[in-house]
């Protein structure tokens, strides 16, 4: 009994750990998706590739993903960067952190 509870717990935790990097997460599921759609998709597009005429970063680009730390992404969302406005006044820190995970989920495997 104890072994099956441990196995089930580990399975559940591993499944939860993959949510932020799963394609489903990046395709508009969950609370971060609503925030992304409302605040980010106008420029970064729903697929994370960005509106070409606006020249935002392509979140699906592995090189771009590798060149940014989570701390840098958090700071960019909170404080703004370039022409992008900051959202620290409009979003809670937990929402910003969820957006960081959401942006990471666009990375191609």
Query: Any idea of the CATH topology?
Result: Cytochrome Bc1 Complex, Chain D, domain 2
Helix content: 55-70%
Strand content: under 5%
- What form results from the Cα inertia axes? globular
According to CATH, what is the class?
Mainly Alpha
* Oligomerization: single chain
Question: What is the ordering of alpha helices and beta strands?
Answer: HHHHHHEEH
Integer-rounded radius of gyration: 16 Å
Overall pLDDT confidence: 81
Structural class: mainly alpha
Question: What's the quick description here?
Answer:
The chain is mostly helical and 109 residues long. The chain has helices spanning 2-17, 23-26, 31-39, 41-44, 62-66, 70-79, 93-104; strands at residues 80-81, 84-85.
Key descriptive features of the protein:
single chain; 109 residues; mainly alpha; Cytochrome Bc1 Complex, Chain D, domain 2; two-stranded antiparallel sheet; 7 helices; 55% helix; 4% strand
Describe the structure in your own words.
The structure is a single chain. The chain has 109 residues and is mostly helical. It has a single domain, classed as Cytochrome Bc1 Complex, Chain D, domain 2, CATH 1.10.760. It is built from seven helices and two strands. Strands 1-2 form a two-stranded antiparallel ribbon. A hairpin with a 2-residue loop joins strand 1 and strand 2. Helix 3 packs across helix 7 and helix 6 packs across helix 7. It is globular, with a radius of gyration of 16 Å. The N and C termini lie far apart (37 Å). About 21% of the residues have low confidence.
Any chance you could write out the topology, listing elements then pairs?
Layout: H1 2-17, H2 23-26, H3 31-39, H4 41-44, H5 62-66, H6 70-79, E1 80-81, E2 84-85, H7 93-104
Antiparallel strand pairs: 1-2
């Amino acid at each position: 009994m104890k072994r099956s509870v441990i196995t089930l717990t580990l399975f559940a935790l591993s499944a939860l750990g993959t949510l932020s990097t799963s394609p489903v997460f990046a395709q508009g599921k969950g609370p971060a998706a609503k925030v992304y759609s409302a605040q980010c998709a106008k420029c970064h597009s729903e697929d994370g590739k960005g509106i070409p005429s606006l020249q935002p970063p392509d979140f699906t680009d592995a090189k771009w993903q590798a060149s940014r730390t989570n701390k840098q992404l958090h700071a960019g969302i909170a404080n703004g960067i370039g022409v992008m406005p900051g959202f620290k006044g409009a979003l809670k820190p937990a929402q910003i952190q969820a957006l960081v995970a959401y942006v990471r989920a666009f990375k191609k495997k």
